[in-house]
Amino acid sequence: MNFTLIFIVLLTLQSITTYSLPFVVFYGISDSCSNGAITHFTELLSNWSGSSGHCIEIGNGAWDSWFMPFSKQIDFACEKLKKMSELREGYNIIGLSQGNMVGRGVIEFCDGGPPVRNLISLAGPHAGIASVPFCGSGILCSLADCLLKLAIYSNFIQDHLAPAGYIKIPTDIADYRKGCKFLPVLNNEVHRNCTLKKRFASLENLVLILFERDEILVPKQTSWFGSYPDGSFSTVLPAQKTKLYTEDWIGLKMLDEAGKVKFLNVSGSHLEISTSEMKKNILPYLVDNVSTTVTATSTSSDLLWPLSVRDFDQESNGVVEEILQLHTHAEKASLRLWKF
């Protein structure tokens, strides 16, 4: 009798399908895949989810995160992704800060690339930022500071300084729309492109994670597509009050009304996240392809759950808590508010 029960359980386990899509990580400014925190972050999520995780290096890492324009960064990433055979059936993107600009660019501009299922955005400057992130010392900081003394929307700056591509000064909207070469295209602000909207709206989940003590993104609500209104620094509009949403330039409203947009928040400063917050806010969107078809009693449930999910549940109830700082420690980022 016991042998028969064991046999039935083992046979049933064979019918349980466990499949987690691979995921890729796009790091932020001044960073690279060699940053130990990025490596650790990727490995943790890969181990917890049972899926294959890859950090995508763009050019020379930290240097090119500053000085390679986004059109080239996206082309670089697109070609890499198309060569990764494991992504052919689809994959998820995890974007860290500026890395979300590359991730979204891949979704909207990468012709012939593998399909993206979920975009999980940590501190993404999706609606632009009204300040210029730069550093206090070091060669990257010195070069960036020199460039920033020039007109932010000039052709030279736009072609040679990546973050200039998503600077949106609310009191200088005319020059922004005329001179900014990346964000107005990405957000379909000027010339509506139905293909870009269709591609972005094809996501199964758009996970937008805001960091409550973020002082790098101004305003921090840009992580949720919130922004200053045109012409004013006085208040911040939530995403649902912006024209990008109400006129549905990129399909954000469409996704939201379908229940596919998750507005989440964590307690830390910019890209400071705990392992428990990672498990709560990121991991579910990496394992949502796990399918279990067995209804088990409480005494045998541990036998019937796939291993990765069971381990995740056990670790979630543990006492170990780790805080990850996902921005580079080599450069200390600060802010300067630019009003023109």
From TrEMBL:
The keyword Transmembrane does not apply. It holds the Pfam family Palm_thioest. Residues 1-20 form the signal peptide. It comes from the Eukaryota. InterPro entries: AB_hydrolase_fold. Keywords: Hydrolase, Signal. This is Palmitoyl-protein thioesterase 1.
